[in-house]
Amino acid sequence: MSIVVFTEKNKAAAQIAGILSEGGFNRASIDGIPVYDFKKNGKEWRIMGLSGHIMGYDFPPEYSNWRECDPAVLLDTDPVKNVLKKPYATAISRLAGQADELILACDFDREGENIGFEAKSIAEKSSRAPVKRARFSSLSASEIKKAFGNLVEPNENLAMSAEARQILDLKMGAAFTRFMTLSVREHARTKGIISIGPCQTPTCGFVYERERLIRDFKAKDFWKIEGIFSHSAKDFKGTHRAGNITEKAKADEIFKRIKDCKKGTVAKKREKESAVNPPYPLNTTEFLKRASKYLGISPETALEVAEQLYLAGFTSYPRTETNKYADDFDFKTILVGFSSGEFREQVMDILSRSQIKSRNGTKDGHDHPPIYPIRAAGRQEIEKSVRMPDAWKVYDLIVRHFIANLMPPAIFDKTRLEVHVRGEIFDATGSILKDAGWLAVYPFENKNDKLLPNLELNDEVDVKKLSNTRSKTSPPKRLTEAELLTLMDKNGIGTKATAPSHIETNKKRGYFETKGKTIAILDTGFTLMESLDSSVPILVKPDIRARIEALIQDVEDGKKSFDSTLEEGSHLIREMYSQLRSGKEQIVTKLAGTITDESIAADKKNFVGECPECGRMLRIVRTDKGRFVGCSGYPSCKNTYPLPKKGALNVLRSKQCEKEGVAVIKVGNKYHWSVGMGPCFTCDSEKKCFPPEVIGTCPKCDGSMFIITTKDTRFLACTERCGYTQSLPKEGRLTVKGKCKHCDWKQIRVKPKEKDANEFCINLRCSSRKSNSG
DNA sequence: GCAAGGTC
């Protein structure tokens, strides 16, 4: 009797082989793919790990040329399923041919069931052996043994629900993406792709919605009355109970009443101890959020680093929903590893307790434990094994989080004072960290002490200053990547493993970019979302994903057939497609504009700046008749500016004309020209805008030596025109650097073509020249 | 060349 088992990945195959064989298995390989075999109770077992999906959908080849088929045709075309990883298919066939029983043992979820069915469909071509399913929700010995002792039938509905998702996602993504891309190319020359998908588009939608709030925001004035109080030489601040006062008259009236007061009284005092609990164990989403927030690492990179740390055996499996530990989780073994290093004190404290208790969350994916360090390792060891820049930082975060989770809460002493000034109430709060608890190992959240002087009820305090200041309400802030991940998670956009890739897709397409930790939408993204929002609003919102999800849930539950669901889903997509098509012109002309403008902005040589008339892009236009600065909004915007007829043009990025000019251009090596103003040498501000580049003091008089560059030579001359000059190196690009260490001249840097740059002092009297005359 | 989902 021969039994063949397929698992979702190699690691699981090895693990399961270890458990079922109780350690005595043999590792073989079929065309490089590991297979674990062993004998037990007279039965021969062979366990092979797949590699996630090994098959995938695509349209038949005759539909693959974008220009040769109307994208709408894709909506009525059934994609076909192909093997994407041939070696796995070969191995499956070979194993199945000799099997008396096949067992699918992939992860117990929709995709896992589907991956199992991929193996089943390949196996059934060379085998008539019965196919069973082992269902387990963790890779623990007890679960695995139970699952293999109680085999069930494979769940076709569950597998088909994932199948429906794949087909609908592909149909929609391919048709919409081709349609948008081809339409935009009718108006703009670009190789770029305008993609739309049920996850990437709502992801961009979140960023768009926030941007709208920011752009539509209207600041309002408010007033705030604050006091600086003092007692026994210590100052503290209090805020009037009214908080942000929106009516000026009201603020003025209160302020007028108390502004001359010199004393106040403590009318109430409340002291409270408050505890801040440690964070829950890390699941993927939480890990990615914290890596972005604390370490500034993008979700995509963070997941990749965690994957490598996992493969190198430092941390546990990084793709998990679970944020609670199982009851029998062995903290002790891991903690012992950390008991001699930086965390010695805290770890010894945890180990000394009769029972180690984690602060658990409530999510359980029933597959993997939270992300935790498998073993303690030093910085050098990590960096040697995982050659990625942030490996240590990520590992360190996982370790600190793991230990913090097992530690006691942080205790703050909080004090609230109510200070009365002629009947007006001011609130002051103070907070002192009394016991750091878990914060001792978690430096990412800094909670600063805010001290109040030692005051008792009815004590008198001095009023040092009272102010009534006007402020403006501030617009909402841009989303951070951490917040975006939260929104995606809440709205079911993507999965723990794919969310970072949807963010990445949007960046790749030029829809948004990250600036530090926040996300800034780009013109193309904004315009695309804006026009989709008016023509196919469902696309911009999480609803689209929710609709597809609801459809396939019915397949899973057996409430609807696979075929009728596909038809229903295709109908939904067709409807959106026709909405998109009827809004085409309106969407595409605007979108083409932003794409043209972005490519103009990227053309550093000719890009001049933003058109003050219409906000689109100004660039240098050359025709056979001559050259000028023109607007990308032409013909609707006819804004143009003349340019000098001769000389190479260089737009100075760091210079802005102080008068009304839109940009400053260097003309040859001769002079400057302000776009919209004309040549700078006719301008009375020339000396101010282009002060002579002073190198040092003149050795002959009180003047300064500065660089004069003419068409054929360059040299130093004196600002006082005393007649002293000095030659400069003739070749190479010359820049002025910082001060010389030995004299009061500035050093120069010369970079001749195809030679190394040289930095030195050219003061003939400088002491550095004696030792280093080259 | 297009989506999203696995895994490496």
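The CA atoms of residues 193 and 625 of chain A lie 35 Å apart.
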